[in-house]
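Hi R.,

Here are the chain sequences for the assembly we discussed:
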Amino acid sequence: MGDSEEELEEDDTEWRSSFLDSAAPAVPAAAPGPSLCKPSAATSAQRVILHFDLDCFYAQVEMIRNPALREVPLAGIQQKYIIVTCNYVARDLGLTKLMSVIDAKEKCPQLVLVKGEDLTHYREMSYKVTELLMSYCPLVERLGFDENFMDVTEMVERRLTQTPDLNNFSFTGHVYNHISANVKASDHPRMALGSHIAAELREAIHNKLGLTGCAGIATNKLLAKLVSGAFKPNQQTTLLPENLCDIIGSLSSLRKVPGIGHQTAKRLQALGLVSIQDLQSFPLKDLVSEFGGPSAQRMKNLVIAVDDSPVTPTGAPQSLSDEDSFKKMASTKDVLQKTQQLLSSLVERMNKDGRQPLTFRLTIRRYSPTNKWFSRESKQCPIPNHIGQKIPSGSRDDAVLQLVPLAMKLFHKMVDSNAPFHLTLINVCFSNLQTRGAAVSGKGSITSFFSHGTSPRKTQTSSSQSQNGSSQAADSHCMDHQFSMHNMVTQHTSQMTVTTESPSSYEAALHGSRWKQSSVVAVKDTRLQTACRAARSDSDETSNTVTHRLPPNVDPEVFELLPEEIQVELLSPAYVNSSPSTSTSSSAQATVPDVPHIQKAPSPEPSQPFTENIEGAVNELDPPCRATTVNNQRPLATSAFPVREEGRLSFVESSDCKFPVNVDPEVFSELPPDVQRELMSEWKQQKPVLKVPSSRKPGRKTKDRKAAGKGGQANSLFKYFKPT
DNA sequence: CTGGGCATCT
DNA sequence: AGATGCC
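And here is the predicted structure of the full complex:
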């Protein structure tokens, strides 16, 4: 009895203290200054938000890949002429992020540098971290490769009901502006539980992935992020609502506020606003006239530490891109070769992802003496289906071969190659990624995921305390490790990683040797350039003798600009006729260095030991999932990135059923079983339509994604379940 | 001598 | 398509 009374009191206390954070976005009394710390109307319960920030992430990954680097006092990660990050030993000697290599070596001549331009390993490890966090709670939002937000409100509430002894425990880690030991956890039970969860998750990341990092615990994303860096490295800090003013006031300038970047800070400075207080006391009206309503209000809120933006589950990336920068690129031939190289790598990544891109985009950066690091331009176009299909199907070389002309076409829309030009960057990007039917055996399907992911470990979780008869909604957010992530991540661990960093691959691509057959080996660059010039001069007259033999969708104009080897290839029967012949594919395979069986001897592969760690890990923490009944009836739980596309029905194959991809699996799982069955049988009678969703307005998509993350409300059922 | 890659908003 | 922001 006494216990429950006390718990109620704690609840009230925390509710009162949460008033600060739950101010309506509209900032009713925009009174400046002191009003900051006055409570305003509370509309919703306070959240518990975690922010994880891995320590010098790239450096940690490299030290894991090559443990010898641990002995070395310093390790920097170099991209082009920049040290993008370095370990803490190096930082103690004065190195900072984004320092030039020249400056860095001047400060410490013994600095060991590791090339970090290929992000493959960082990307893989980054997704493993997100995956691990998601296995505890699906509300995880990525920010870059090394940061994750997590909304653990429901996990905290669940623990709150199961933690009888709130008096006898304390905070884990630091408490901002307090001596941690002096803070009574019973005054802030939710924050205290949040600090415990953060500690457990950091420990899990360390045990299973070998990475250390910081965490911040607070009531919104802004504060969690700000506070996570209070103690570095490998520590965590909780921000109590009562210290909200302290941390926001500690920021040295507006630029430090996440969400206020270079440009915005400049414009603010033009208004005479530099400090947090400047903006707090600046009239909202004047701000609106400068930035518009939404932006102005958002900034006003940020500087009083109000941030009601939800933790939006990130899921699979919406675009994949690959880019390279350089001092100067001034010839069409170089552009073509670089584009081909980038595409080769990008297509392979796309293939591992398993989805099919519907849109291609080419981005360039032109050199200009003044505004050097701006002025990116891009053009995009749809990818013809017959080309796009080759990417998930594994015909990588075919795909690249046909995408290169597409890219060159876009290039010529931006650059007049008759006039001199000077590029400093090329980026190729796939977007509008479509999940394809899983019938294709391979990466896109569930089968490969299972063959890799199934392990006896799962039985552990179901034995734990799951008598929680009441809240299905809370438990439905709980997932098992095994079903947590898109197979892309797992795929990366089970296949040898092939990247463009292989010198042989790079050279081959550069010289076009991978494309050539023996008969064209003798082609010289001079001939090629002549051909390019010729093509430029009469680009309007493309009535060449060979163009009528071109494969469909190859622009004759672009064809002229291709290296002769590629022209020959395109004219081979394999491409002129629709079906690839064995001769072409075999000749391509024999000369392509980065097919799996020809690849270079790899350096010790990190993914293997990690996988073992995950599978064999002993979880000393709370079981990640306390209830399994809901999970068992979740059809899409096996396909970890739920696809919620709008428009026509497309279907995803699950282990034992098909259903529309625009169905939110979380919502679906919460329906009564008989309703599930009814819907299933209804869907089964419809035919899969693989059309592009057309009849929707752009801009709806992001909203859908956000709504989907919080799915589970009755009114969202209609939205997701009615195909209309 | 300012990287590479993602997202959102307009 | 571009601008901006985050790491």
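The two ends of chain A are 53 Å apart (CA to CA). The first helix of chain A runs from residue 2 to 17.

Let me know if anything looks off.

Best,
T.
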